[in-house]
């Protein structure tokens, strides 16, 4: 319905539509359903969000989210796939049964670095970038950890 203003218009493998996925802790100050203790010793929720990146001049647009208990795992493959399926269904080109393939780049932090999620993304021919920031002083990382996937 957005026509020329659709977010996935004029995208290709060289200029993909960028989708970011991340979770955040939300504090609850009372016993709300399904609030639970968090890994940071708080209490609340751990929702998983998917945003469409509109670049430096834009503000991102939420495509989907999954409300989860505060004790939900950071790298839960089923949750990541579920919320990504919902987000991809929001894209006009995907809604008609077409897979967006390399026209979409999924960016996710280290929580997405699981075999199950990467295999799912690869089967759908989606581009992806999974990682996390390294400290400025790389010499503080033990040599045996570098290049081993640890």
Structure characterization notes:
With 150 residues, this protein is α/β, with parallel strands linked by helices. The chain is 17% helix and 23% strand. It contains 3 helices and 8 strands. A 5-stranded mixed sheet has the order 6-5-1-7-8. The longest helix is centred in the middle third of the chain and has 13 residues, at 77-89. The mean pLDDT is 79.
Features:
alpha/beta; five-stranded mixed beta sheet; 150 residues; 8 strands; globular
Describe, in short, the structure shown.
By secondary structure, the protein is of the alpha/beta class. The protein has helices spanning 77-89, 92-95, 115-123; strands at residues 17-23, 26-27, 36-37, 43-45, 48-53, 61-66, 104-108, 127-130. 17% of the residues lie in helices and 23% in strands.
Q: What strand line-up does the widest sheet have?
A: 6-5-1-7-8
Percentage of residues in strands: 15-25%
Biggest beta sheet attributes: 5 strands, mixed
SS-based class? alpha/beta
- Report the span from N to C terminus: 46 Å
N-to-C order of helices and strands: EEEEEEHHEHE
Number of strands: 8
What is the element layout, followed by pairings?
Elements: E1 17-23, E2 26-27, E3 36-37, E4 43-45, E5 48-53, E6 61-66, H1 77-89, H2 92-95, E7 104-108, H3 115-123, E8 127-130
Parallel strand pairs: 1-7, 7-8
Antiparallel strand pairs: 1-5, 2-4, 3-4, 5-6
């Amino acid at each position: 319905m957005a026509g020329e203003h659709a977010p996935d218009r004029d995208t290709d493998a060289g200029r993909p539509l960028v989708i970011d996925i991340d979770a955040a802790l939300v504090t609850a100050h009372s016993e709300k359903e399904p609030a639970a203790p968090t890994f940071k010793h708080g209490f609340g929720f751990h929702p998983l969000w998917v945003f469409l990146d509109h670049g430096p001049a834009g503000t991102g647009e939420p495509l989907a989210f999954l409300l989860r208990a505060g004790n939900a795992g950071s790298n839960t493959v089923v949750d990541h796939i579920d919320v990504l399926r919902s987000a991809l269904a929001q894209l006009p080109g995907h809604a008609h049964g077409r897979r967006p393939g390399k026209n979409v780049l999924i960016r996710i932090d280290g929580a997405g670095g699981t075999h199950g999620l990467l295999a799912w993304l690869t089967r759908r021919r989606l581009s992806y970038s999974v990682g996390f920031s390294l400290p400025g002083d790389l010499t503080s990382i033990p040599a045996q950890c570098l290049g081993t996937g640890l």
